[in-house]
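Hey, can you fold this one?
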Amino acid sequence: MTRTWTPGTSDPRLSALAATPRLVVALDFDGTASPLVPDPMAARALPEVAAQIDRLAALPDTLVAYVSGRSLHDLRTITEHTDDSIIALAGSHGAQYWYPGVSDADEADDAATDAERQALWDAARPIIDRYEGAEFEPKTYGFGVHTRRADAETEKQVFAEIDALVAERFPHWRRRAGNRVLEFSSRNEGKDAAMAALREHFDATAILFAGDDVTDEDAMRVLGPDDLGVRVGPGESAAALRVENPQQIARLLEALADERAARRE
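Sure. Predicted structure:
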């Protein structure tokens, strides 16, 4: 059962994370580190979240990662990520990775899949362009339809048309529906794969993962007894804790950073 965390209160699960030998703190970006904004590429982490991320990343044996459905290129843009960053990235729901000192570590699709993706883009764009407020987002392994600027009826109609197109011509592509977004991918990886990859790469003894949307539940469901899942906002979740918004994520990360830093003094 998911329990609501109240800022300023202690929690034994946070204390356990603070004490774990090697911790990975992994955050979804949109709706978790950043509020949801009408223009997806205008999203930026809240300053108070970024400050706590920097604090945690500077602690010994504490690794930080952003885990997103965004393509790695776009994720690097919105996180203002640089080549000398110590923050890892998992893009495309766990099909692409950037590790400090390693750089990109993703697999390329073959020519046939590239051609199929282009054919899908060419078929989907004219549909999306007919709907006011709907936006096409090209992705490394597929595409997304954003409707944050559209009304509910427009969203319903454009999603229905895109669903029909993919069902008819590209039925094997993976479908994901999130908060005002519908996307399709030629890859099957989910954020559960990202949890496994981050755990292995960093030899983590525990992971904190926080996310706000349906796709984040893939990660929540594979967390172990020493890990901690945090749901941001409403909705059913496999997470142990819930906070209301990204501002409270900053408070939770601050509490974790304070306790972990104190244990290492």
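The chain has a mean pLDDT of 94. Let me know if you want another pass with a different chain boundary.
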